[in-house]
From TrEMBL, chain A:
Heterotetramer of 2 PreA and 2 PreT subunits. It comes from Iodidimonas nitroreducens. One of its GO terms (molecular function) is metal ion binding. This is dihydrouracil dehydrogenase (NAD(+)). It comes from the Bacteria.
Length: 428, 461
């Protein structure tokens, strides 16, 4: 069986699956239940300077897809609303009772050096393995100058990271907000401040839906709503890209990454690890299904690794980074054509209408002798965009077949149709 | 006269009423959403082509999914104003659901009928409360049209014609509208007086009046109507039942299956309907199956359905045959009745075995006897050509052209009384709808001519 243990920022964990700082890690009761199910670690619900915050009801909005499945949730919860010493006592107890599990203390404070340092020291004294700086909460806390209000200003990211580094001798994780234009800016700032790792992403600023009876955003609090933090499956693509950006960037390449955002399954986790993450954190999936999901995450990831012959996570960590390139490095001569398997086609017409209305009019309908319909790809018109394959409801009914055109690898900068290239060629 | 009496097997009345409850209970919102979510939203979907009224099925299902139930119902009713009855009574297994592309994969087809019922019931309930009919009439055309027969064909015609701006008068022989929706469809498909509720809804469009107890050929003639109206539509269905022509057919306890069903449909309490202990049903169609199942539900000890050919030749669908077997109906094939015996009252029936010999169905001479105190004949309905005069008739049905016009200009026909497709409610609705559109077009073409009956006061008859 594959070895799932991992090491991140010098911390050893029995597996890469941690619970992100959020309601699942709000108190000892939850954390103990999570450890019982097999989670390798938790990032405790963010702690602030006393007095604790006060939350509102309700707190969650749901984003559902066409079929009624939840693709994301949005929350307007603040940080821990329990007194600091209660949290710290419970952290100490959990550390003592579960010595092989990781506990990271998450924290935030106003832009005040003393406040950050005092809080960091108190948390460190509770015995945590490391400290995570919550610079991402995009609702409520940011209105008080915390969370994303700090995470969106690179100088502040650097400063807060440094303040914590200066007073505690523990690994420091700077948790980044995705509510910025270029993730590399805060990632580099965290690195400059001395972060051992970055955790990303925190939630995406959002309004998840509008209640058309009440004419107010959801979730509604006495007739009014506010923007909140979006998370769950829907944010995974955003998170994957941000993780890849940091992993590909020369300046941040060596920064360790604790990946977060829309991780539901072992496969999601494996994808983040393939893009360079050392470990992952999960929040929404646990909130929707309970802590038991980690069991399949563990079983699924080890089965995958066994199948592929990876003995440790490091065997495939970052393997997809080199294949993640800029558009300009793609081979323009690579050509695919859609191939429809008539045998398995159920004649739903989805491929046709997708290509006809929105792509390249490359799928023709022909009448079959049995009264049915045959869907035929017109090779000359097919640009190989994949749309038909994705909309086809039958697994492997449409496949994309590479065309053996014998043409060499050719990128856009070298392409004869590139005006910039022509200019260069002419000027030579 | 039928007397009130306890059912032969002394089943409690309550059990019987329960046995006649809804065959398929309606889907609730959650179940409908889940089922709707399975639909692939096919393009130019085969299910549409398989629906005789061509309901835009992918669209109405999509509208259930987007929580636009009013719009969903409108999509259905726009193509088929009796979408509510069709959702309950259509043999979907050979129509839309039979054509669903999911049959080609490993999945069950979408439950189109159940979803259709969900949407239509929703809108009908809403309309019953607020009274706003979902369709508006075009400006008054000043034209008046007559309809003979308030069955699905006639009512569908009337609704579409009213929508197009014409005023419609329906002449119906019976005291109630609905035709076989009211008198023929199995009770467990049409619970809670649905036929009448649907007709109230349909009439909500306005511009339609129905005259009851007016029979063509007795109370008025085709030429009366032709004089008074700008167009006439005949939707008289198949009123007569076939006869066996065997000894003993006139004994007590031998009756057309349709009249048995009719009594049952009209009975205030099903448990008060007289049934036999040993019921034999003759025939292989829908009517035979319905009569057999309903006899069993009334408490008959044995119900045997006898059909002269093999299982596959029965016009009842495989699904219906299974339903009969599930209800403990014995199905016997390859035999035809030769005589009925009994002293005033039938007590048994003799059958001769049959076989295909030289390509023809023939008796083998070998016979058997079944004990029977109720014998129901379901060997097909026939059109009663009462009052049809010189109209051209072929194979017992009124001949129409591709515009539903009969051999007499201005007189149209549709439903079971013509040969358009299968004898199904949904086909009758389609015929009525298309005939109304055809008359409307013909009238528009003839707009130069003044309306015939615009000022002739009350309709005749
Ligand atoms: C027992 C039985 C069960 C059936 N079950 C199903 C089923 O489950 N699903 C399905 O799709 N189809 C079923 N059918 C078929 C379906 O009921 C018919 O196809 C449909 O009702 C035909 O409609 P119609 O309007 O042409 O005729 P009808 O429904 O027969 O209506 C004709 C109307 O005309 C009136 N009328 C007749 N003669 C005159 C006259 N001379 N003057 C004035 N009015 C007259 C009648 O009183 C009646 O109201 C069943 C049929 C039977 C007999
Ligand atoms: C209800 C809720 C509360 C959260 N509270 C915090 C918090 O206190 N501190 C923090 O750093 N992140 C918080 N988060 C963000 C999560 O830790 C995580 O970064 C985000 O939800 C993305 O991961 P996911 O897609 O697995 O949920 C919260 C998320 C949710 C849904
Ligand atoms: S790959 Fe794209 S262009 Fe080609 S047939 Fe499919 S949808 Fe059309
Ligand atoms: S989408 Fe797939 S199943 Fe549907 S018609 Fe096209 S090839 Fe066939
Ligand atoms: S064929 Fe089936 S899946 Fe396709 S639109 Fe019709 S009901 Fe939906």
């Amino acid at each position: 069986m594959a070895d799932l243990s991992c090491r991140i920022a010098g911390i050893d964990s029995i597996n890469p699956f941690w619970l992100a700082s959020a309601p699942p890690t709000d108190k000892k009761y939850n954390v103990v239940r999570a450890f019982q199910k097999g989670w390798g670690g938790v990032v405790w619900k963010t702690l602030g300077v006393d007095p604790p915050v006060v939350n509102v009801t309700s707190r969650y909005g749901l984003h559902k897809d066409f079929k009624g499945a939840t693709i994301g949730i949005n929350n307007i919860e603040l940080i821990s609303d329990r007194p600091l010493d209660v949290n710290l006592r419970e952290i100490e107890e959990c550390r003592r009772e579960w010595p092989d599990r990781v506990i990271i203390g998450s924290m935030m404070a106003e832009m005040d050096e003393q406040a950050w340092k005092e809080l960091a020291i108190r948390i460190a004294n509770s015995g945590v393995h490391g400290i995570e700086l919550n610079l991402g909460c995009p609702h409520g806390m940011c209105e008080r100058g915390m969370g994303s209000a700090i995470g969106q200003v690179p100088e502040m990211v650097e400063k807060t990271t440094r303040w914590v580094r200066e007073v505690v001798d523990l690994p420091v994780f700077t948790k980044l907000t995705p509510n910025i234009t270029d993730i590399l800016v805060p990632a580099e700032a965290a690195l400059a401040g001395g972060a051992h790792a970055v955790s990303l992403i925190n939630t995406v600023n959002s309004i998840v839906s509008v209640d058309l009876d009440a004419m107010a955003p959801d979730p509604m609090i006495d007739g009014k709503g506010t923007h909140g933090g979006y998370c769950g499956s829907a944010v995974k693509p955003i998170a994957l890209n941000m993780v890849a950006e940091i992993a590909r960037n020369a300046a941040t390449r060596d920064l360790e990454i604790s990946a977060i955002g829309g991780i539901n399954t072992w496969r999601d986790a494996a994808e983040f690890i393939a893009l360079g993450a050392s470990g992952v954190q999960v929040c929404t999936a646990a909130m929707l299904y309970g802590f038991r999901i980690v069991e399949d995450m563990i079983a699924g990831l080890s089965a995958f690794m066994d199948e592929k012959g990876y003995k440790t996570l490091d065997d495939f960590r970052g393997r997809a980074v080199a294949n993640t390139v800029d558009w300009n490095e793609l081979n323009m001569n690579f050509d695919l054509k859609a191939r429809i398997d008539e045998e398995s086609c159920i004649e739903c017409g989805r491929c046709h209408i997708a290509c006809e209305d929105t792509s390249h009019q490359a799928i023709r309908i022909e009448a079959k002798d049995d009264g049915g319909r045959r869907f035929v790809v017109i090779d000359d018109d097919c640009v190989g965009c994949n749309l038909c394959m994705h909309v086809c409801p039958v697994d492997q009914c449409i496949e994309m077949e590479p065309v053996a055109n014998g043409l060499p690898h050719l990128t856009w900068p070298d392409h004869p149709k590139n005006p910039a290239h022509k200019a260069v060629a002419e000027s030579v | 006269m039928r007397k009130k009496q306890l059912s032969p097997t002394h089943k409690r009345d309550m059990d019987i009423e329960r046995a006649f409850s809804d065959l398929h209970p309606p889907l609730d919102a959650g179940a409908a959403f889940i089922e709707a979510s399975r639909c692939l939203y096919c393009y130019d979907a085969p299910c549409i082509n398989a629906c005789p009224t061509a309901i835009d099925i992918p669209t109405f299902i999509h509208q259930i999914r987007t929580d636009n139930l009013d719009g969903s119902a409108r999509t259905i009713l726009d193509a088929n104003i009796m979408g509510g009855t069709c959702a309950r009574a259509c043999p979907t297994e050979i129509l839309c659901e039979g054509a669903c592309v999911l049959n080609k994969g490993d999945e069950k087809p979408i439950r189109i009928g159940a979803l259709q019922r969900r949407s239509v019931d929703h809108l009908m309930d809403k309309v019953a409360k607020n009274g706003t009919h979902p369709f508006q009439r075009a400006p008054q055309s000043g034209r008046r049209l007559a309809v003979i027969g308030a069955g699905p064909a006639g009512l569908s015609f009337a609704h579409r014609a009213a929508m197009l701006g014409h005023d419609v008068t329906v002449y119906e022989a019976r005291p109630k509208p609905g035709g076989l929706n009211e008198y023929g469809l199995a009770a467990y498909k049409m619970v809670d007086d649905f036929a009448q509720k649907e007709i109230d809804f349909l009439l909500g469009i306005g511009g339609i009046s129905i005259k009851y107890g007016k029979k063509l050929g007795e109370d008025f003639s085709l030429s009366d109507l032709k004089k008074q109206y700008d167009g006439v539509f005949i939707g008289i269905g198949l009123g007569g039942s076939g006869t066996l022509g065997i000894p003993g057919e006139d004994l007590d306890g031998v009756e057309p299956a349709l009249s048995f069903i009719e009594h049952l449909r009209q009975a205030k309490q099903k448990s008060h309907v007289k049934c036999g202990r040993h019921v034999v049903v003759i025939g292989g169609g829908n009517t035979a199956i319905d009569a057999a199942i309903q006899s069993k539900k009334l408490g008959a000890e044995t119900v045997t359905l006898v059909y002269r050919r093999g299982d596959d030749s029965m016009s009842a669908t495989a699904w219906e045959r299974d339903l009969a077997r599930l209800n403990d109906v014995q199905i016997r094939t390859w035999a035809r009745p030769s005589s009925i015996g009994g002293d005033q009252k039938a007590d048994h029936i003799m059958f001769e075995r049959t076989k295909i010999i030289d390509g023809r169905l023939q008796g083998t001479g070998e016979t058997y006897r079944l004990t029977a105190d109720l014998i129901l004949k379901a060997i097909g309905q026939k059109m009663l050509p009462l009052g049809l005069g010189d109209l051209q008739i072929k194979n017992g049905r009124i001949v129409v052209d591709d515009q539903y016009q009969t051999s007499m200009p201005g007189i149209y026909a549709g439903g079971d009384c013509i040969q358009s497709g299968d004898d199904l409610t949904v086909q009758a609705v389609q015929d009525g709808k298309l005939a109304a559109l055809a008359i409307d077009q013909a009238l528009t073409r003839n707009d130069a001519q003044p309306p015939v009956a615009a000022h002739s006061g009350k309709g005749g008859a």
